[in-house]
Amino acid sequence: MSPIEYTFLISKFFLFLGILLALIRFLKGPKPLDRIIALDMIAITGLGLLSIFMIESGDKTIIDIILTYSILPFVGTASLCTLIYKKSLK
Amino acid sequence: MKEIIVATFVFFGSFFTFTACLGMFRFDDIFTRLHASSNSLIFGISTILFGLMIHFSNWEVSIKSLILIVFLLMTAPLSAHLVGKASNYSK
Questions:
Q1: What are the residue ranges spanned by the domains of chain A?
Q2: How many independent structural domains does chain B possess?
Q3: What gap in Å lies between CA A28 and CA B10, rounded to an integer?
């Protein structure tokens, strides 16, 4: 195993550990807003994992998947936060 | 030489992303968690995407990942602002 592949493996392990920590925060967050931030963080970290997979495999079409996948957490966060904000005003 | 630069970018980006997730796990208030989620996460992902841009050296991939970096830099403060506003008004 070359040092470059070893570095990519360590990077993937870091991102996997980050997703695991955010998942623990998602499971035990006291408020709903904590869970929303944790879900956003899980999605964006998965985007980085997908990008490392794209570098390793050499497939150029995965950039479209990454580009589409980056829109979803923002839309989810914005809609849920607007819902909580409008519900708290009443 | 190019592979070494790409590996350095990817390693530092994933390390910063891991730091952001660790801050998400350790902090005890929603505003400090928002600080960890908004700033260092986008920096780490942008560094990984710069490594991807160097690795492929292609116009299509470079322009698309530049669009992705600009989109992330635009939407991260927006979502952080919305979460902060909702957390400030809801008890």
A1: 3-89
A2: 1
A3: 30
Question: Which residue of B7, B42, B82 is in closest CB contact with A77?
Answer: B82
Q: How far is A30 from chain B (nearest CA, A)?
A: 10
B19 pLDDT band, cuts 50/70/90, is: very high
Q: How far apart are CA B17 and CA A33, in angstroms?
A: 21
ipTM of the complex: 0.87
The amino acid that residue B25 corresponds to is F
Q: Which one of A12, A38, A40 has the shortest CB-CB distance to B79?
A: A40
Per-window interface: A 46-65 vs B, CB < 8 A: 47-48, 51-52, 54-55, 60, 63-64
Q: Which of B56, B31, B45 is nearest to A69 (CA)?
A: B45
pTM metric for this prediction: 0.88
Q: Is the pLDDT of residue A79 over 90?
A: yes
What range does the domain containing B24 cover?
Answer: 2-89
